[in-house]
Amino acid sequence: MSTINVPKREEVSTVNQAIFDNLEKTLGFVPNLFATYAHSENALGNYLSLSNAKTSLKAKEKEAVNLAVSQVNNCIYCLSAHTAIAKMNGFTDEQILELRAGKASFNEKLDALASLAKNITENRGATDEQVVADFFAAGWTKENLIDTIVLVGDKTITNYIHRTTKVPVDFPEAQPLEGVKA
Q1: Does 81 share its domain with 28?
Q2: Could you tell me if 89 and 138 lie in one domain?
């Protein structure tokens, strides 16, 4: 059960109304979690600026991180949203489940990236040295490392907002992660 309402357009500031209008044009709807940010005058715009900022990670790589982090943080909203986005980026259901488990047997670079994202999240930034070494050995750069850490923080914010507010999931619900060895 939700601990906070999902505000409608007429219930938010004019600044957030403009953002809602832009999201409606871009996505076709305002996701409940984004709408929830609009309880704050500034949080939605600030979050979207962070989320849409330039990064060295490509769209598929970002989804690998988003799925691994959301799984560790047990956020059904973000798992559902990023499962849908990962499918749009060409990942199969099986690959998505692997990425959620922090691995990618189908791609060495994505395997190192998903493992890193999972490890950073599980250890709250006290990342295992071997995981970082494996990340670099797979061909990632220092820039990729920093951008990955920023993305872990970005996704953790949304995970925490949903885990706290429990707003309704408005994406097809992600299946449970079962039988995938991490």
Answers
A1: no
A2: yes
Tokens standing for residue 15 = 């600044």
Place of tokens 């939700």: 2
33 and 104 part of one domain: no
Can you give the residue range of the structural domain that contains 36?
Answer: 9-51
- 158 contacts 127 by C-beta, under 8 angstroms: no
pLDDT given at position 101 = 97
Residue 68 shares a structural domain with residue 115: yes
Q: Is 84 exposed, middle or buried (0-12, 13-18, 19+ CB in 10 A)?
A: middle
| Positions of the chain with pLDDT lower than 70, given as ranges | 179-182
pLDDT digits (tens, 9 = 90+) for 121-156: 999 999 999 999 999 999 999 999 999 999 999 999
Q: What is the pTM of this model?
A: 0.94
